[in-house]
Amino acid sequence: MNKVDLLQLIEAGESSTLEFKRDDCRPEQIAREAVAMANSLGGVIILGIEDDRTTSGLARKNTEEWVMDSVFGRKIHPVLIPHYQEFDLQGGRVAALIVPQGTTKPYVVRHNEREDIYVRIGSTTRLATREQQARLFTSGGMLHTELLPVSGATINTFDLQRVQDYLANFVGEMNIPQSADEWERRLCDFGLMVETDYGIRLGTIAGVVLFAHRPRRLLPQAGIRLMVFEGDELDYSAKVDYYIDEPAIGRWLVSTNGVRENIANGLLESFAAIVRPHIFREETAINIGLRKDTKALYPWQALRELVVNALAHRDWTRLDEITITIFSDRLEVFSPGALVNSMTVEKMKAGLRNTRNPVIADILRDYGYADRRGMGVRKKVLPPYNNTTQPTFEATEDHLRVVLPRLE
Predict the structure, then answer these.
(1) What tens digit of pLDDT does each residue of 225-253 get?
(2) CA dihedral sign, ordered 264, 269, 273, 275
(3) Distance (Å, rounded) from C-alpha 243 to C-alpha 324?
(4) Separation CA 204–CA 395 (nearest Å)
(5) Of 45, 52, 73, 391, which shows the fewest CB atoms inside 10 Å?
(6) What is the reported pTM?
(7) Which residues of 22-56 are buried (b: 16+ CB within 10 A; e: fewer)?
(8) Cα–Cα distance measured from residue 221 to residue 365, given in angstroms and rounded to the nearest whole number
């Protein structure tokens, strides 16, 4: 950062990534701002600037040593090291603390024998809510929300025929459980159930999403919502507004001749059947075979890849469902939650893989819904389009939205 950059920041005023502080504030006050920024997208704290943007300057001697020791060394955990710079301005000398986005979230302020987690909401720093704390633990890799218990998800919640097929054909389980207790223990082994503090076994989010009879009854954010509109924007009247509520994995049965047959759709098969009429169009002309050709309005492989990715990588602390919205000129795939850990849109396009829900992702790969190379966006989403027309990716703290332009 140079002096021109600093002056531009001061002129812009406080924001979600910029905070002004007097030099005489207490260590925990600066620590709160730094922790909140590290738990978000990072930011800059300028010491010696008032809230009205006037310069009061640094009065403290050895400010850098005080900041590194009393603030970041004693008040913040885990270790967080800012970049420190001082500048001479009209009115006094100021210090800029450039706080990076943290990689081991959540960061906490240690003060008065407590550890408090803070987040940045606009230009305000607040204590994190329970839901925000869960997201921070998840993004820092300390918690997989897919392994949390779902209230009411007993063994009767599961379609055990679907689970049995998984155990027999992908795990190689020769001895299929015979009692409810045996089933519960086996499901716990795979993260599909979990034993609570009171000895009660409940299905996890992963178990409910993959194998429950009707996941949305216990987990309202499960499933897929499909909306279709005539025009190019949201309207009160939709051609289609439908919630697909199925376990992610279909029901398979081995016939008498030893062939595995899909006898009941899973979530993705049901979605494919419902969405197909809206992304393929029958041409009016008759081809040489006396039939009408079918034209894809959107690349089928790209849509399949995006929906599978949304299911495998969405944030289950968010109460929104995966939503596919089709307009007259585009198709949008909405996946709840920010990109996981240090993932960015550019890294995703390059083929980097970073899994938020490993149990769900691994079982989807076992059934062939996703590949194991993490190259789906690069190989299946981008190639159908030319250099002038490309899918767009909108990544925020709340969601990932991918927009596929219509191929016409």
Answers:
(1) 999 999 999 988 899 999 999 999 999 88
(2) positive
(3) 10
(4) 27
(5) 52
(6) 0.74
(7) ebeeebbbbbbbbbbbbbbebbbbbbbbeeeeebb
(8) 22
